[in-house]
From TrEMBL:
PANTHER family: HYDROPHOBIC PROTEIN RCI2 LOW TEMPERATURE AND SALT RESPONSIVE PROTEIN LTI6 -RELATED, OS06G0651900 PROTEIN. Keywords: Membrane, Transmembrane, Transmembrane helix. This is Hydrophobic protein OSR8. GO terms for cellular component: membrane.
Amino acid sequence: MSSGGCSTCLETIFSVVLPPLGVFFRYGCCSSEFFVSLALTALFYVPGIVYSVWVILKTPPEPPGIDGERPYYILA
């Protein structure tokens, strides 16, 4: 995966264009953040954008672990 700053920038851009897509890249498709973003975007587009950008910017990306994808504490 790319560096933390670059991935956050790309996720933010995707969140403005299609809000659930940016949240999907950060949290995956089976998270509550994704479903809230999907519902807000389906009902009202602008609240979906605001929520998605807020969710992405509030949580820093996880640092890569030993295998490059998962943090080391998950591997144990």
